[in-house]
Sequence to fold (333 residues):
Amino acid sequence: MSQLITIERHILEQQKNFPEATGELTDLLSDVAFAAKLVRREVVRAGLVDILGFAGSTNVQGEEVKKLDLFANDKIINAIGQHGRFAIMGSEENEGIIIPPKNETGSYALLFDPLDGSSNIDVNVSVGTIFSIYRIKSSNPCNASISDCLQKGSEQVAAGYVIYGSSVVMVYTTGNGVHGFTYDPTIGEFLLSHENITTPESGKYYSINEGSYAQFNDGTKRYLDYIKEEDPATGRPYSTRYIGSLVADFHRNLLTGGVFVYPPTTKHPSGKLRLMYEANPLAFICEQAGGRATDGHRRILEIDPSELHQRTPLYIGSMADVKVAEEFEQGIR
Fold:
């Protein structure tokens, strides 16, 4: 790619596809990109901070130091909330809704997981931020309530994630394709690196925590047996790739093809991943890239949520691969 296209410029170009657009959503996405830069700054130096003794409950000055995921949560709320572009927010780290500290409010709701996979940060495994944006239903933004957050995933107007790894990549969609940007620290900008991402129809990887095998239902166990069988005609056996950081596993499979499965278990019969903060935004991205996302029986984006922290099983990735996993879950195979 000969041109250097920043994420701000790309978002503005995308806005032209929506003649009715006011520019508000464009500003919101730019705010999210800015917040990601703040989180990235702390993630890349987290190990150094630990070495210098700032990971405990207090530092050498006696000041309270928060865990990195809580730090990321605060940074995102403050960086985004101060502009008053969101009427309401919800975070995986907060039990209830968040009203941004601004009198003038926008007409959108933001739901986010500030640092997905944060338990892996101490061992230098990739972590990420996941976000989802909805237009509120309330006619007056000042009256926004939890019902404005509890919308089906199909109502999302934008979604994305940031993965903090060997490089920092932000991927987003506004319902017009999926685009990825890599952060260049020398100029402090996200530059277009993955335009119009299309996930393969099928892949060669499967991602699942097989340590929970004893808790899986019979369908999941038979699926795992199937995917490990030798059959060149169907590309089996698949190779297992499981990082344990949802954003990292999803990002790899999005680009290379494959399926991520987090099924129901005896310990978590309703699933473990959160519908609003993880499953919905990634499902929107996956479908826009030509993939598929279900709970094993229903399209993720059609699930009617009843609570902010609702959990769900998740089967997501390449279209053909997800369909096979579903057939085992449903007892068709």
In short: The two ends are 45 Å apart (CA to CA).
